[in-house]
Amino acid sequence: MPYINENFIKIPAAYLFSEITRRVSQYASENPGVDIIRMGIGDVTLPLPDVCVDAMIKAADEQREVETFRGYGPEQGYDFLRKAIVENDFASLGIEPDEIFVSDGAKSDTGNIGDIFSGDNKVAITDPSYPVYVDTNAMGGRAGEFVNGCWTDLVYLTCNESSQFIPELPAEKVDIVYLCYPNNPTGTTLTKDQLAAWVNYALENRAIILFDAAYEAFITEKDVPHSIYEIAGAKEVAIEFRSYSKTAGFTGTRCGYTVVPKSVRASSENGGRVSLNKLWLRRQTTKFNGVSYVVQRAAEATYSPEGRKQVDELIRYYMENARVIREALQAIGLSVVGGVNAPYVWAKTPDGMSSWDYFDFLLKKKHIVCTPGVGFGASGEGFVRFSSFGDKDRIAEAVRRMVR
Ligand SMILES: *Cc1c(COP(=O)(O)O)cnc(C)c1O
Question: Both 37 and 185 in a single domain?
Fold first, then answer.
């Protein structure tokens, strides 16, 4: 008789976005004709840069001819893209092309990376967080039991007002730490010194940092590291995840990459320290057959001079939205973070309202949809997230309604 992986049924149903959809649909059907503005979206809204579409058309045309047709490519990505990544995103950081693993995105990689770690590792995750880290550790048996809204074996690194949204080093020893900066959902960042404290913790405790830099391109301030490898020692302890999704509008096109330096090692039960680059290579070549050639050419195109310009324009558009949202929320007296180096603004609800109560207030009184912070973890209670992915005229209208 086949038995299931019991870990899957311990995980609560993905309730956040389905519950938002349910509440919005119900309100819309009871109030036909109301103009609802959605500011809860975690997906880009502008189309792909022209350079990417042109590169895909050219690459697709190559598939017509026997001389230029491509079959299976290297699982880790074509050399042209791995080299472009190293030269453009890691210039002078000493990362090499064989430390880059091209993939179909950061969700897969941040989820799949658990394959190369023992189920016995103690895992720390910032709270609130992108749900993939928590749920995939639960699937891998590293989270324990789900009791009163928390996993018994995870270490939650609370990020709230009293910690100024900066995760404190854990009192207990942990083996794996997930950090995401610029952060989804709070939009906050760490300075170089703050990130260095984590790298030093990892060096001293032989921990591994899984660093999600999906929003790196949105950084505008100077002292905010774009890569964890800007921190001395990080190449011994950190794996970094990047994505073209938010940067270049690839959420539907699918491409990202993971950096696994050859010097990052973890212990084997049989003694010795094993290179995680070798394990991840083994994992990817066994379970993954690479990103389509056409899409890798599109990703490469983002690094051309024209590509950089077009990507910068996308980011500037969203960050202008973020500024408008942030200033409007401040004008109505809310306490907000984010929106300066990330496309998300994280606002404290007024008068101690719960996340869902404020969500309902905005939906029913302002016809605006946000994302309840509690959906990202217990420490998100009492906050809501506004996304700057959206049309600037619609966001301007939402702002008029809010300040009214
Ligand atoms: C959107 C997002 C990603 C990117 O996911 P893809 O699979 O590359 O589209 C990764 N991490 C975080 C925190 C995100 O918000």
Answer: no
